[in-house]
Give the backbone structure.
Amino acid sequence: IPKQEAKLYMSFMYVAFISLFIGGLMGLLQVLVRSGSFTLPFGIGYYQILTVHGVILALVLTTFFIIGFQFTLMSKTVGMSVKQRKVSWLAFWIMTIGTLVTAVTILLGKASVLYTFYAPLKAHPAFYIGLALVIVGTWVAAFVNWRQLYLWKKGHPGEKSPLLAFMVTINMIMWFIASLGVAAAVLVQFIPWSLGYAETINVLVSRTLFWYFGHPLVYFWLLPAYMAWYAIIPKIIGGKLFSDSLARLSFVLFLFFSIPVGFHHQLTEPGIDPTWKFIQVVLTFMVIIPSLMTAFSLFATFEITGRRKGYGGLFGWFKHLPWKDVRFFAPFVGMLAFIPGGAGGIINASHQVNTLVHNTIWVTGHFHLTVATTVILTFFGITYWLIPHLTGRKLTKSVNRLGIFQTIVWGVGMLIMSGAMHIQGLLGGPRRSAYSDYGGTEQAVSWGAYQMAQAIGGTILFVGIILMVYIFIKLTFFSPKGVEEFPVAEEEENAEPTPKWMENWKLWIAITIALILFAYTIPFVDIIQNSPPGSVPFDWPIGNS
Ligand code: HAS
């Protein structure tokens, strides 16, 4: 990757790793507060740090890492022109200015509204304006990505697009269509309301628009990890991609089914017809299929690679995976976490069972397994080769060893923290609450040990964050100069050729829009006609705890 481009991609990575540090610190403070043995100093509010934690990790870290990583994939596979690079810098600066505006607003205590910013909680207008800028920046990045592929295709008529470029394009189409929902909520509802132009806000409309965006958001995080699992990990383990067409099909299915499922976050919400909730639950079960296809494909890749290397027996191929290579080990632990993480998602989505877990800390446990383990460990796995590749350095043996240790620290910390969250959730422990003994009720007493376990797990995780930030700094500035490979896998020779219709973009987008219209039109009209006209703002008493 050319040096001038590397500078651009590294800029995204700097923001991502600074976010990791700040967000992680807030996470540590939270588990300590919730354990009941620590009080925040200087009048800092619990919801203030919870907002920083959620926004900076779930929205900023992920988005900057993903956009930066995807740019590198596009550059590697289809190239980037000077003009595109300039426009990409524009995307970076719009996103960064937006992030700063939002971050300062939260830090000043003017936006303790959590990362979902549910109305009628009201933040200072700057919070929403900053978020809108971040989204606009990502759109600019999306246009650059699409243009990159378009120009490549023009120069290579009749050829199938490189797999990674195809995957990035799908992810950005999904992201663009999904983020229109949250952009509408922010521009039409939140900004005028927070500026005082509108007196009330329609809460149900805003939550529906948010979750129209909020669920595909989680696949926007997941798909870059899948890009690495499908097309990079096979190369790292000395194998090949099991099937190009299977990988593409799973991404197309994600495009179809990621968006028309937002109601599974609103199953307990009044004002939405249960029939439409049920329909979206069925669609949610459809979106599980591409993940099952991915699991199948990974097992196949691992087994075929091992057997080809001559490792016989039932599990010889498994024993001889490159366990000592952190570029494989970190994402592998992420894959492992996705087995209970995905199972938890299926439980959440199971309509009636959702009543048991909704708004409990079980849900927090679920997303710490999925985004904070599966996705983030894969991102860490990418970091070990991508950063030295971009900075012209080497991943040394000692950093590799430290990386394996970091992965184990993360895995253990998360097992304790997320495990305790799941159990406490089943015992009725609420999410998003500071410490309370609820008047000494028996039920609240039963949560004590699990809160303590979360504090221990969270502290271990913070050690993991310090280690990772150290590794990032080392790989960026101090590792010995050298060349680090950008691993991209080839396809198995005997795989079926990828059919031409796989790149029928117009058809894929048309089906996606049709599914969205099907799942949302009637319930949305119903909500607008029948839900109360609006709610007056609810301003947090700032310094809340
Ligand atoms: Fe979720 C809530 C349903 C996946 C993130 N989810 C959340 C929230 C977040 C989140 C952040 O239906 C909280 C939002 C909030 O603040 O309120 N989720 C699902 C379902 C899936 C799912 C059905 N979630 C994710 C992913 C996330 C994520 C991925 C982030 C990246 N989720 C829900 C629901 C709620 C929810 C409800 C609302 C709950 C409520 O009431 O509020 C599915 O996509 C999961 C499918 C996954 C699988 C696993 C496949 C396994 C693989 C690994 C293979 C392993 C290998 C290694 C090869 C079926 C691919 C093997 C080696 C060996 C040795 C064994």
